[in-house]
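Weekly puzzle thread! Below is a chain. First person to post its structure in token form gets bragging rights.
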Amino acid sequence: NLQPTTNLRLQQLKIFEECYIDDQTYLESDPIMTPDIGIDWITQKSHIPPNAAHVYQSILKSPFSEDPEQYPGESIQSLFSAGKSGTKDSHGGYFAYAPTGASWYSSLGRYTSSVMNRGLTWLLTSPGIAAVEDSTIRWMCDLLGYNLDISGGVFTTGGSMSNLMACHCARKSVKRVGKLGVTVYMSCETHYSVLQALDIVGINNKNLRKIEVNYDGSIKLEALAQAIEEDIEAGYTPMMVVANMGTTNTGVCDDIASIYEIVYPHNIWIHADAAYGGFFMLTKIGKKMLNGIELADSITLDPHKALSCSYGVGVLCVKDRQLLYAANNFHGPYIPEMNDFDYESLNNIADFTFELTRSCRGSEVWLPLKILGISTFRNHLNYCIDTTKHVCESIREHEYIQVNSEPSLSVFTFYLDIPDIELSSAEHWEINQMFLEVINHSDKILIAPTKLNFEYCLRFCVLSSRTTDLHAETAISVIQNAAETTVNMFRRVLISRKNENRAKGFYIPYKLGYTKYKGLGVIAAADIKKGTLVWQFEEGTHITYTVEEARAYLEKLSFEDRKFWLNHVFNWNSNLCALQCDCMFMNHSSNTNIEMLNGDTTKWYASRDIRKGEPIEDDYGTHENPQFYVDLCEEYGVEWSAKVAELYS
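Winning reply:
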């Protein structure tokens, strides 16, 4: 049901999807995550939010019955419900990590393969299905610039498994090992799955060489060459260099042609991790950035990233498939043997991988390529490149937003700064974590944090086939508005830290932080047991004003400061009580976690266990609201306590 529009992107999307709601309806009606589940994970909070724990435990403890279900639809519905919790990675506003659109035809390919349930790793059991995978591998090898007569590859579960197989193949290809063992070279930008892979194939950390990177995240060639020469002289055998072809953090590609010149005299294996970047070879910009990738001995690809396939589809391509065969060719007496390897013969897929029985993953790539055509994916990736540049240039115009890595493929990074305030490293980290929370709590887009040159920053990646111009414009608006909101909140945090009375009255560890829909709030900095004294009135925590004194004080303030002051006072014995400590930032909740006991209105206790990271909130509905207080708030356009409770309960 595609609505009339001049948006070229929506025309492309109509090709991707059998049916598609117009983008405005989709954006407004389809939240990007289940509240309080995906958010708390993506913002790196240390606790598991209660909502997420409830969803997990309810499914975990659901019993299996001895007898068949009378209504199987209930469990099918439960399975769908389970999938609705957390982040929605196929949403058009998902800009975290390497999002996927999970195209309809890819899912259909998986479904068809699953329904047929044909084994394919032994050629004779299903030669047609095996050919589906092999033909798709050949297309990828051709795209990468490999010689089709000798190259090859296999489908895997994803980039991590492809990296493992590449490390295994490289290790098996080494003929002679020096007295100190083999060494592997990579930059600090290399994906951690490579470290896992090397550990599995038996290469110790002491034989790994982390090479410095340039400011943009690409490997320093001089440092690489020096490390190799030093290891050879010391008695090591250099085994492999890992080149990043589209880093996770910034999308930058290493100079693989120059790496080849360094390693070729020493017969060192080059593995290109192109899980994210590889399929950008379909574009002119991608070909330029990945120039020389055909020189790599092995290449990791992830169709479930740039080709919009469902999760669980990776590929390892190799320049010489005989080396892949030699590393994985094992047999048992219960399996009929095929021909010995030669480049002209057909071989079992099982001879090139340590996976045996499995489904046809290739169908999830083959079917959309056949039906949609290669140009559809080229257009999609060009759109991702252009949209990334547009978003970057748009948010860069904001006075508080700094771009610290320029768009590369479809990724860039940025951070928040306050030009008139010199922030410490810890404050930079803190304000940008708050910035991330404000952005993601919009429920309209999702982005991820990272570190670049040891500094905390935010990462934006356009890759989903469901992203439209509206999602991009929404992202720009959300990020710019979040910058204003965050800076205003953080200025208050910095002012608070100069207040010697800020912690007065508190008997628990706390911090000031962002709370969804409510702005700056008081956050528990540790677990708090039920019944613990949280806060109490004492000397230095407040100042009491008569109505006349309050009016005189307000006249001295700016309009915004007047609103702020009135937002943080309440009625106390027919006067106004202005808090002078951080208790003023305690927000409202009708489901409060603190309470007064035994009629004592000067002390608040934890009414239940409060977890670290949880907001500490009061019930404003219990405050008195005499007419003079209501009139004063109305005069300055501020919601009084009872109004706040009514609006936000």
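Puzzle host: Confirmed. Bonus trivia for everyone else. The chain is about 40% helix and 15% strand.
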